[in-house]
Amino acid sequence: MLIGGSAGSIEVIFKIIPALRDGFTIPVVLVIHRPASSKEGFITDVLSTKTPLYLKEATEKEIIQPGTVYLAPADYHLLLEKDHTFSLEASEKVQYSRPSIDVTFEAAAEQYGETLVGIILTGANSDGSKGIEAIARHGGHTIAQDPATAEISTMPQAAISTGKVQQVLTTEEIIIFLNSL
């Protein structure tokens, strides 16, 4: 499962991750726009006090494990590979961002197809909309945060505008959906 967001998304993630049910085994990959200077581990350190799930920043060639929440490292694009590992890339920024939600979502869509769930949260640009299209094209499930509940509606609205978002949900509805998986 992939969750992407930008401005305002940390607050939403701090609601979603702690609310995941005991025994949640699906790996979760968070792609959050943050400055290259972001302190390594800050988000995972704070979140880990609020959930029994294991949280960490993804590392090069790391095997993706069930029940783990991975955060894309600041200033790297995060790719999911065929052998179920991560790959980090420092290529050009996409939508002024590295990590780019589109880059991660598109790479994962090719590898995971119909088993993938992609969620776009609040944010101030259209990063993630191409990734949502890729997930839909490969048969995965697509969700956008309800723009009316987003701190900045641009990102979820851009995803919805693709016509490929299957569900538009509030934060509470996203939590219910994820816990039903």
Question: What does this entry look like structurally?
Answer:
The protein has helices at 9-19, 42-48, 101-112, 129-137, 154-161, 171-179, and strands at residues 2-5, 28-32, 54-57, 68-71, 77-80, 86-89, 117-120, 141-145, 167-169. It has one domain (2-179): 3-Layer(aba) Sandwich (Rossmann fold). It is globular, with a radius of gyration of 14 Å. It contains six helices and nine strands. α4 (129-137) runs parallel beside α5 (154-161). It is of the alpha/beta class and 181 residues long. The strands form two sheets. A seven-stranded parallel beta sheet has the order 3-4-2-1-7-8-9, with helices on both faces. The mean pLDDT is 94. It comes from Pontibacter arcticus. It holds the Pfam family CheB_methylest. Its EC number is 3.1.1.61. One of its GO terms (molecular function) is phosphorelay response regulator activity.
